[in-house]
Amino acid sequence: MIQKKICMLGSFSVGKTSLVRRFVTSLFDEKYHTTIGVKVDKKIVKANGQDVTLVLWDIHGEDVYQKMRMSYLRGMSGYLLVADGTRRQTLDDALSLNERVVQEFGRIPALLLLNKYDLTDQWEIDSSQGAKLAAAGWNVFNTSAKTGDAVEGAFLQLAQATLDK
Amino acid sequence: MAEQAQRRAPMAQAQEKSLDNNHAYEELRHLIVAPETEGLAAVEERLDNLEKRTEDVSEVVAEAIHMRRATGDQALADALAPTIQETLRESVRRDPHVLADALFPVMGPAIRKSITETLRSMLQSFNEALDNSFSARGIQWRIEAMRTGRPFAEIVMMHSLMYRVEQVFLIHRETGLVLNHLVAPTVATQDPDMIAGMLSAIQQFVRDSFHSRSDETLGSLNVGELQVWIEESPNAVLAAVIRGHAPADFRQAMNETLEDIQRHYSSALANFKGDAGPFRGADERLSKLLETRYRQAPAEKKKPRTLMIVGGVAAALLLGWLAYSTYLLIEWSRFLSQLKKQPGIVVVSYTKDGRTFHIQGFRDPLAADPKLLVSQAGLDPEKADLQLAPYYSLDDAMIAERAEKLLHPPPTVKLAANHGELIAEGSASQQWITKLEEHAPWIAGVTKVDDSHLLNSNLQQLYTLKTSLESIVLLFPIGRAELEVGQDAKLAEAQNRIRELQAQSEGFHQTATIDLVGHSDTTGIEGTNLVLSQQRAEQIRRFLMKGGVKRDGLRPSGVGTTQPLRDETTEEGRQLNRSVTFKVSFAPVGNASASTSNASAASPGN
Q: Is residue B463 within a helix (H) or strand (E), and if so which, with residue range?
């Protein structure tokens, strides 16, 4: 069986852990748990007609207090760059984080998830911004860990991308 | 010749024609393939040109090696190895510093790691030995070491293998993905993929947090009874989940396994893209690590037997000790009752203190030596503490013993005591008898002295003379009062004895009375016989007095046939009855009348 190491990257409180939880266990918890260090989870998906084990490294969100350790990313096959659609700043942070990742590891399969899409009334990212990201080569997903919208699809697509690479 | 010329002409013509044709062909060819030809020429020139060719190869050599290596083929390494070895050798020969400088950053950590590893194994063994030295198990192992004659450390190591390697993870170092995972039977596990991922994350966390270099890694984790031992190679991580305490050499086994895997799967590890399939083959190597725990199983079975032997020996020792103690107690009490019976020894009390017996009491100085009695009873005199105060015993045996010591009796005297009365028997000189009578009453314990059975040895001589005289029989013929022929010697002997008796008895203040008794046989009438017997006695007195015997004390008498010496069935018996015999009696001086009256009593029958 093929195994792939997938990392969840993004600022703190954008919903990385919730996305993993939704994807792996189909559950959502309103309470916020900050991740310290790394939490490893896994899910077996079908891609290209074969089983692929996704080993999900849910890495603590980056903030002013703790920088993300690049060493956690070593050997990853792909990553999900997560931003909070209701906080514009998290998108900028995600993109700058992405630059550092690319610098260190080169281009590897990645998706951009704009999470918390259930809170559209508070959405801070307009469609022009979305177009700009698409133009920059980003495959953008509007996801909601709470409702489960687009979550599975995003993971499946990333799994696919790691196999195609 | 002309013909030849003629022939040549058409040939020349033809040649010319063909030359034209060739030219055209050449031109045509030039027109058609000129670019290719030039290209070919250029290629040819390039192939011939060594410099150009080198330049070409140099452009692709790196990619070529890279491609070849990617196929996982060993041939490239095989081909390069001798050259590289030669190069290294040559480099060292020319200037060792170059290689030394290059290796320096590698050798330092490598040596350090090796030393650390050795020290760690040593320390762990030492710690285990210390831990085990002071426990009940440790004592048991010490006994086992003594019993088997093997070093204690070896016994400890053997028993320290009480651990169980529950899981073995082979993890791809870079991605943290599981390459292989083995679980011991009956062990419940979490998802290995997640565990492996977390282990890698922890590893990286530790490395980052302590700013250690990539060759310095977390060696083990302890979680309660579980330990996770981690070993790393350039591309792989080997983690073993161990319950209990594994000996240090298990890490050595892990290291060897990992090195083996790293060597065997080097290209698969380097090109790992998430497919763990190729690493299924490592099962056999990894399962050896799980099997390690079975090695100590037989040793564990041995333990109850060891315990039984130790227990048995202890029980036997205890039983033996108990039996010996009981035996000693019995022996001592037997000895005590014997001691109590000993004359001159009184036991007041005794106590036992450990293995020593304390006996308190009294002892007559003349009593038996108690130490000697202890040895005679088969006991150790060193273990006997005898506190016996001296005293005078009134025991009869002791009184006799004491009298013996003080009176020094001659060997002919036997002394005994009976309720305080000292009894002397046998014979002794007059001096000793006097001494006895004087001193004996002063001896401690003597209340009375009885020497009535003690003969004066001097007096005894008189009795010897008396007996000797009384055995003499002087014979007479039938009907006559003159001695038979041949009786002179006997008469002379009788004479001497009587003289001696008379002389000696005076010394003892005794008067010896000698009856001369005449006898007759039954032939003839009784009246005649009585007279005849009197005449025979008178006759002998006359002879004796003639021979110098004093008349005093000689008392002739005749008894006739009334006191025959023999019955008269034979002539010999009758002859013996025709005789005179002697009878001696003593009386203290001045008391002779009794004897005289006694003698006169026989007289009326004359």
A: helix B457-470
The minimal CB distance from B201 to the residues A1, A40, A52 is found for: A40
Please state the ipTM of this predicted complex.
Answer: 0.82
What CATH number has the domain spanning A2-164? 3.40.50.300
Residue B497's nearest CA partner among B429, B587, B555, B584 is B584
Please state, in angstroms and rounded to a whole number, the distance separating the CA atoms of residues B27 and B31.
Answer: 6
DSSP B163-190: EEEEEEEEEETTT--EEEEEE-TT----
B19 class by beta-carbon count within 10 Å (0-12 exposed, 13-18 middle, 19+ buried): exposed
Using CB atoms, pick whichever of A53, A69, A75 lies closest to residue B176: A75
Question: What is the phi/psi pair of residue B118, to 5°?
Answer: -60, -45
Q: Output DSSP code: residue A124.
A: -
Distance from CA of B277 to the nearest CA of A (A): 7
Sign of dihedral through CA atoms B92, B98, B102, B108?
A: positive
pLDDT digits (tens, 9 = 90+) for B402-452: 998 888 888 888 889 998 899 988 888 888 888 888 888 888 888 888 888
Residue A57, chain B, CB below 8 Å: the answer is yes
Secondary structure E strands in B216-355: 220-223, 226-232, 236-244, 345-353
Residue of B nearest to A38 (CA): B201
Q: Read off the amino acid at residue B120.
A: R
The nearest alpha carbon in chain B to A54 belongs to: B193
Average pLDDT rounded to a whole number, residues B448-477 = 85
* A3 to B177: CB separation less than 8 angstroms, yes or no: yes
> pLDDT band at B238, cuts 50/70/90?
very high
Residues 6+ apart with CB under 8 A from B563: B517, B519
Quick check: helix, strand or coil at residue B148?
A: helix
Which tens digits make up the pLDDT trace of B517-569? Answer: 999 888 877 788 888 899 999 989 998 888 888 888 889 999 888 888 888 88
Q: Looking at the complex, does the CB of residue B121 fall below 8 Å from at least one CB of chain A?
A: no
Closest approach of chain A CAs to the CA of B181, in angstroms?
13
Q: Is the pTM of this model over 0.80?
A: no
For residue A12, CA distances in Å to A65, A74, B165, B177 come to 11, 21, 39, 25
Q: How confident is the model at residue B12, as a pLDDT?
A: 60
Q: Which residue has the tokens 């003080």?
A: B406
Shortest Cα distance from A14 to chain B (angstroms)? 21
